[in-house]
C-alpha cells in the first residue's frame, strides 16, 4: 500500500510532524477542527485526522486535491473493485503511442513505461465516464498512478527537468492506498486560493505552510498536474511544460508578504501556526524566503502574542544545495483579536 507520506515533495513536513504535534499539545491541547490551508500532499492533515476531528484540507494544485480526496474524503468506495483495476493496469502492455508517451517518453520515463502511463490514465477517464467507478475510486486510481510514477521518474524528485542520460529499466507498479475512511466523516477538501478560502471557513487550529520562495510548485510538478487534469494541453520547452499561468501562487511572488497579511487578518480561528524555514538571504535568489521574519511577526502580532519554536531540519531540496544550519521554525499565536 502507498502511504500518504510516500511522495517526494519539496518542503514536505513528514519529518517534523512530531515537532508540530508537540507545539499543539503544549499550546492548544484538545481541539475539534484543524485547517491545513496549504496542504501539499496532506501529511499534516492526515497526521491529526481522527473520528472526532474535522480536517479541512486545501491546495491550489489539482494533483494534490485528487490525492487529498483519495486519502481524506469519506465517500464510499469498493476496495475489491479498485484492487482489480490496479492488477489489470499493472499487467497491461500497451504498444500504441499516446499523448503521454509522445511528450514524456524518452525523457522522464522509458517509451515503454510512458505508453503504459498514458494508457492507464485514459482508461481511468473511460471508467469514470461510463460510471464503472465513482469519484472516490477515480481519485484513488489517479493518486496510485501518480505515486507509482513518482517512484521511478528520471528526475531528482521534481519535474523542472529530467536527468539527461540513458533511462534504465523502470519497475512500474500501482498499489492500493492506505486509507482509513472511518476517520474522514467530518472532513472537507478544497482546491482553491487560500486567501479566498480563509474568508469562508472557521476552525480551531489554522496551520499555514505556504511556499517559501520563488520556486513555483506548478513548475516543479507540472507533469503530475498535466496527468491529473488530463486535458492534453500543448507542451513546450525541454521540460515539456504546459501553460500554468492560472495556478501560480502569490506566495512565490514579491507580493507574498501582502498575501500573508491578508490571510492572517481574515482568519477565523482560535490558534494559528506558521511553518517557515530560516533561509532568508542565505541561498541563491530563487531560494531566498519571500516573507521576512519582520513581516511574519508584524502580521501575526495583529492577532495575538507571537511565539517562535525552532528545530534543526534537513529539507527535501532539488539536490543542488544543503545548508547545515537550516532550521524549521513554527510561529505560533493564540488568537485574542
TrEMBL record:
BP GO annotations: DNA restriction-modification system; methylation
Alphabetized Gene3D superfamilies for the sequence: Vaccinia Virus protein VP39
Record's keyword terms, sorted: Methyltransferase, S-adenosyl-L-methionine, Transferase
EC number: 2.1.1.72
Keyword Methyltransferase: yes
Enzyme class: transferase
Catalysed reactions, semicolon-separated: a 2'-deoxyadenosine in DNA + S-adenosyl-L-methionine = an N(6)-methyl-2'-deoxyadenosine in DNA + S-adenosyl-L-homocysteine + H(+)
Pfam families: MethyltransfD12
GO molecular function: nucleic acid binding; site-specific DNA-methyltransferase (adenine-specific) activity
TM regions (residue ranges): none
Keyword Transferase annotated: yes
Protein name, entry field: site-specific DNA-methyltransferase (adenine-specific)
Upper classification of the organism: Bacteria, Pseudomonadati, Campylobacterota, Epsilonproteobacteria, Campylobacterales
